[in-house]
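quick one, 219 residues, struct below
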Amino acid sequence: MTTNAHDQHIATPATDRPSTGPTDIGVERLSKVYAQAIIEAADRKQCRPDVLDELRSIVRDVLLQVPKAAIIFDSPKVTVEEKSAIINRICAGRVQPTTLHTLHVLARHGRLGMLSQVVAAAERFADELDGRQQATVTTAVHLDAAEQSQIVAAVERTVGGSVTPTFLVNPELIGGLIVRVADTVYDQSVATSLVRLRARLKQRSIHEIQYGRDRLGTA
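---
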């Protein structure tokens, strides 16, 4: 595959070597290095949103949906040439050159199995550049779009800036709502609007548990 001078900057960090066992400097640290290189290369080409969307799609639609693909990507028994052929078959002509080159660089240096971590790190780095913080919202029940927007608005008022939310569901969370931004965990003390929503979610959770019991009792 032909690459240009700009894409050559998505290269192996000086501290990295092909994987022959446990990651030598830690997956998290190495993911950040690759993530920064990817975002910087994408920004030079002014295609950051496309590159992030494409990499997310590969993780979501290929690695998570086809377990065999994830095994192949991570296996040291599959040669670089074989992995590159698979990458070209899946992606060539369908994604940005920067996206394709990213995959080939990771494959060439035995780091393709880290793709999920690299993509997550790239999203965090992009958010940092844009002044956004990542927020993880865990609720006991699924939220509709209006409820999600209400939570995001309340959290943004609290932290004084934009956030990129990730919504998780934990049915065992009877309390209704937990919000984590960076290393800070917020609960009902965050804001009045969040308190009211948390109370409603708690009632919904209790109602759904009771409804489930009633259905079992009449089965």
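The chain has eight helices and four strands.
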